[in-house]
Amino acid sequence: MASYSQEEEKHYREYGPGCEIGSFPKDFVYGPDDPDQDISLIFAPDQKPKILLMGLRRSGKSSIQKVVFHKMTPNETLFLESTNKIESENISNSSFVQFKILDFPGQIDFFEPSFDSEKIFGGHGALVFVIDAQDDYMEALNRLHQTVLRAHKVNPHLRFEVFIHKVDGLSDDTKIETQRDIHQRANDELVDAGMEQIHLSFYLTSIYDHSIFEAFSKVVQKLIPQLPTLENLLNLFISNSGIEKAFLFDVLSKIYIATDSSAVDMQSYELCCEMIDVVIDISDIYGKDEGAQVPFDKESSSIIKLNNATVLYLREVSRYLALVCILREESFDKQGLIDYNFLCFRKAIQDVFDVRKVQLQQLTSSLSSPILQNSHTNGPTT
Amino acid sequence: MNAIVSICHFCELHGPSVVFCTQAFRDLLGFNVIADIETSPLENTRTGEDEEQTKDGKSDLWKYGRIHQDIVAQARNETPNETCVACRSFPHNKPGYISNDDSARVSYISSQYPLQTELYILVRQACIRSLSCEVCPGKEGPIYFGDEARGHVLSYTFFLRDVQARGFHRWYSIMVLMKDKMLLLNSWPFIVKHLKQIINNLQDSASKIYETEESVVNHRALRSAAVKMDNLRKQRVAGQPRSLCEMVGEEGVWQHLHSSFTWLLKASGLRLQERLVEGPPISSFMADCSDECGGLNIQQSYNILGSTIFHHLVHHLLIGRQVILRGNSDVIISALIKSIQPLLPKHCYRAIHFSPHYVDCASCNVLGLHSLVSIPQNVMAMKNLCVIDLIPKGETGEVSSKATPRTSSNLLSTQEVIKGDYQDPKDVQDIKDSIKNYTIKLTQEGPLPARPPQILSRIESAVSNPTLTYSTLCVYLSTIIYEWINKVKVWIHVQNAKKMLHGCPERVPSPSTLQTSNRSSSIPIIQSSSHSLAHSPVMSTFRSMSPGGLGERQQEIAHQDEKHHLLAAIGSTEWDVPLLEFWAKNFCQDSSQEMILQ
Predict the structure, then answer these.
(1) B241 has a chain A CB within 8 A of its CB
(2) What is the H or E stretch that residue B139 is in?
(3) Which ranges of the sequence are coiled-coil (chain A) (predicted)?
(4) Domain covering A48-222 assigned CATH 3.30.40.230 in the classification
(5) Structural domain of B409
(6) Which end of chain B, C or N, has fewer beta carbons within 10 A?
């Protein structure tokens, strides 16, 4: 992910100077650090990062959105109607993950002059291009090429992600072959167009397994500017508690916000997803109904011991965030240590939240003061 | 109506596409009027084309307002070639349907795309907007959008059930695009009502087909099974294009839509008409206030009377009550009476400056009387007058005691007696001076409506404004009256039309009465029975009415509703009605007299 960190650095360079807290670019979740400077940004509704789902018709855009964010079963997606307009949805579950998903109808060319492409493609976000791997993908590649070039022209900061979708029907060999082929062709075309600076990331996805959640997690993670901090915290936490792998999950969508820096293997991710399902289902059935949308609260925790001497341990972090760890059975003997470390970890995360809260308060209080009358967008920091 | 009605479809392969549209073409009026149609120069220039056309055998089909063939060809080239069954109504190069309305000299043409390029762009943009941008709450239903540049659009979105569609239904919309926003929005209830009928028919037939197909095999289960069976073929199960004919199970669906749309264009054009309301020239209603008759002007009278009395007096005047001024100086009284002349249009101002006896309100509405004249009891009882007394200071009691015993029979003599007593004022200054000797009092007053007409406050603010000169004031007042006379004209016109309409509740015939014929020809034509269409009555009501079938109460509500609409249309309110009625009453008499004279 070398390119990713480069981009991140670029990002910091752009937004960095006005920041009081070095590692947090200010335009995303935390709001402006200097209220005088960025007042207009806060109130522009489009400042939330956007994820644009694009691709040819019937490539599975709406299905992805429904399965990931609406818990629709994959079989149900067969009966979805075709999307006839841009369906916009705000995802603001946790304080961390706040973004907007725009589901595009594949039939319409949104670069036509009658559409406001600035408004559609502007802002901070990612463009997810979905390719149906079971179909002939040449047309999709053409469209991908055009879309990427034109969107890049409108908004050079847009990230591009390519989902090679519906791979559930393909054999493992075909999957690899398809990904290689698509990767090759797409990048060749970009080089031919002289746009090799555009970076495309490719993912093999399917709504019938967890690959779509994993791919979406990666997309979302790139939109979270404080990801390095979270990763750092997780690294500290697992190394001091003897844990093998830890994921920070968004409970509702089962996408993971962050994980430690060790490699993610699909099985452990799936295992953790299933665990969340178990916890949610159990508390759904037996938990007290207090009108909460998700039966998940401060006390939620779960321990599952597997027969291969592995333990799954789930703890609640905030209302919509859960920490799921995989560890060896012998490490779990020191559960007290793990729990203590977890409390430290949770406190650290909450500190991160508090920074934002304080800033929001500052912002709202200073909003009412008349000093803001002469606010300017690019002025010097005070 | 100058509109283009079109059906749009969200095709699962091609996105929003224009499937079918109906336009009206009419001959340019100028040419027909100038020359006899057969020998018109326009016709001559066309002959070359016509010969070409004759070879195709369609020259006589498109009768009116034919546009240049090049333009049509151009439009054809512009249209995208990638169409499927779902987003196509006619095969390429087939013009569709033509209906000629001989009496109105209009040809209604249905084709897949509008025949003019510039219209094609508008319709195409509106189509994308109606299906993919604008949201109607509840998904199905009518919405309005548009602007001056891109045309104003009423779009009715709906879906048709279809077993083969993704999500088991397909999106359609019917759009009415026109340049005239006011006309479109005023026709909204009418258009929406009839579009709804058309749509309901389509939906019913589509549902029937859906049920039949569903009864053969459960497509939901079929689709699930297909996925398990063969992953690679699952996408072929749903989402194949299907034409509208097939979905509603009716071969002649386009023909029906053509006749429905043609009827809609025709009927909504006849429904609302803009017409000049004829009447005698305005100038004949304007009071001539150039001469300061009698010495006093309106501003001075206002100062003399004081704002409260003036307010009451003018209010009575404006709504047609009789106003009586009583005093013992005929000069002062007549000067006052003359001074208020500019406040009323000529036909409403019938004054007797100084009368020896009471004159009833039928023959005059402003009356000057001697202070000794009493008003008959029966008139007083009717309470529709306003009496203002000028009572000499110091002899208040005396006047009233004197006034009672006398009768109107010996008034002439008393007038003489009093004339002898008083030195009549000669000029303005004299009047002003002598008026100081009087107390002005509102002695009798009939009940007034709760709110005065809007015009009153404008008059008051103008008259009480000391910075205005008399001539400016006169111009201003006559402008106000001018404005209201125009409103009265519309009011009268609508009232008359309503009376006529109640006499003959005839309606524009429904599309079912259209006869279809000539089906055997290469291009199907529907010849409308244009005769019956052309002679439908003019409906100048502001809303579509459905005479008959309404209960008494409902009718009354409808009436009230209509009245409000009319009032809103002429920028008036409920409390202006007395004024409108009063002005209209005399207006009619006057104008009818003038009509006879003409």
Answers:
(1) no
(2) none
(3) none
(4) no
(5) 282-463
(6) C
